[in-house]
Design brief:
By secondary structure, the chain is of the alpha+beta class. The chain has one domain. Helix content is 53%, strand content 24%. It has three helices and three strands. It has a three-stranded mixed beta sheet with strand order 1-2-3. The protein is globular and about 40 Å long.
């Protein structure tokens, strides 16, 4: 499995500048092989990782699950 390291702060700033979502970027990276995407901070410490699936259908399932979990966490903060 290929591992891709991404500096989180720069990645999310780029998404803001380009007015796009990480899911659109992830969709463009799909090539039939799973990839581990490792997000790091400025000191290359691992913040979190994501296994990019090999197909669009699984990516869409992941997106929906992420959205649900994120909404649940936001609801619990209020």
């Amino acid at each position: 499995m290929q591992t891709i390291q991404i500096q989180a702060e720069q990645f999310f700033e780029l998404l803001k500048l380009k007015d796009t979502s990480m899911w659109e970027i992830f969709a463009q990276m799909i090539d039939g092989n799973e990839k581990e995407i490792v997000f790091t901070d400025g000191e290359n410490k691992i913040l979190f990782n994501y296994i990019l699936p090999s197909n669009q259908e699984k990516l869409e399932e992941d997106r929906k699950e992420f959205s649900k979990q994120f909404a649940d966490k936001l609801a619990n903060l209020n």
